Amino acid sequence: MIKAILASVSASMVLMACTHAPNIAGDASPINTVNMSETAKTLASDEFLGRAPGTEGETLTVDYLIKRFTELGLEPGGRDGAWTDPVTLNHSVITEARTLSVSQDGAAIDMVQGRDIEISSANPRDIIRIEDAPVVFVGFGVSAPEREWDDFGTIDLKGKVALFLVNDPDFGVTDDHPVSNVFGGRRMTYYGRWAYKFEEAARRGAVAALVVHETKAAGYGWNVAASSPGENYAVAGKGSAKASVDLQGWLHEDMARQWVERAGYDLGALRTAARQRDFTAFTLGDLRFNADLALTVETVESQNVLGKITGATRPDETIMLSGHWDAYGVGEPDERGRVVRPGANDDALGLAGIMEIARNLKAAPPLERTVVFAAWTAEESGLLGSEAYAQDPIYPLETTVANFTLDILQTAGPARDVIQVGEGQSDLEELMAMTAAAQGRVISPEGLPENGLFFRADHFSLARRGVPVLLIMGIAGGSDLEVGGREAGDAWVKDYIDNRYHNQNDVWDAEWDLRGAAQDVELFLDMTRELGNSTAWPELKPTSEFKGLRDASAASRK
Q1: Number of neighbours of residue 529 by Cβ within 10 angstroms
Q2: Which of 159, 111, 104, 162 is CA-nearest to residue 292?
Q3: Distance between CA atoms of 67 and 531, rounded to whole angstroms?
Q4: pLDDT tens digits, residue range 148-170?
């Protein structure tokens, strides 16, 4: 199928290459960086209160998005002609930890939420008690028959606490290690993602699932992992969440070391053992976990916001462009007394790019296929807005041609490349390379594949159901910048992750150089135009974990 796609677009790509000089100065781009900056500035202002779901900040944000979509000339994209699609969430907060400890032979280690452990619950209950639950070390917690890997063996997790290592078994090993590249090598697979580990623990009946935090293997520091201690959101209602453990979260590495030492083991030795094919889960001595927690639970009514441009000849075939409108709301004051976590880049700037694509498409005759523009809620709470949509889609996933997601754009200027996130997933990757070449750019692999970014943005809710997707995320690796090269690109990524990611410093900045962001937005614009007037359907690659799901619906696309 990729040959059909490339054949259908090659002529226009050649034309683009002739008429578009490489977007170095930015003045040839149809993407207006002033518009993008002003949109991000508005959404990230204190007036919007950090855009948390279910708050006054949501009301202001949704009203603003509807106003902007209307001004852009979009049609309402929700059900029955509405601009919004409701998402009901269960929001729980641990308000008191009367007991939070682990013990061995009667000697207890008490833990402090946010310092030693970060736990929350996706179950809507106001009291959670776990008494003397055995702790089982499950290694990386992977059950992957296709890789001949099973960490669980015959152990029964019912009523127990599952203790996981983060990432994949082959993360960080040398090339000569027996398990080198059994999974993704440096690139995290879904087995390495904490969401998979929680799901697997729940499926096996555990009462709690804890992942030992390691900064390099997780892709972010403890400050990020524990940024909202005790707080959890989950999609509510029938057919929503998979069954969940009572408690889930992170265990600080220092505390994990104390746990295993109390049980008579060494954490480093356990990591080494867990990287062997013959490893199987085992109970950590007589270690027992105890928790007596009080929670407040509320139902939050939130909204996805959707607009569309109906296709001229094949309106039932859909291309989706999306970003998330939520950020982290209001938190504890930082050292400067700021309480609003504004999410200027994550993801107000991504939504600004989506709006620029919409503006350009509306300035021309409609494409043959329908284009849907989605602003998701509750991404920062676990991709919940997009997950709710994927469970009950408005536009059938079988005939969704592709999803393009913008989530964090680099603000350091023009780049010679675009970073590929999640290599080996679909034919869209070849189309992206051709489209980038027409801009005078090349594709570069993820600089930080171990961070598992393919599983950490809203496109994944559709990807895991077989929809071809592409994500542009500025922190996937340092771009090869026109000024300063890869070194400058890496420095931008490090500064953003270390100093701005998910905190009060992610603010709008008048000094942003958005020409590189405009290149990436224009890339998705051009790809949307090409696919929008094509009859081809991108296919998933044999290396995609989700190929079977897409293949099963092939008859819907004939």
Answers
A1: 21
A2: 111
A3: 28
A4: 999 999 999 999 999 999 999 99
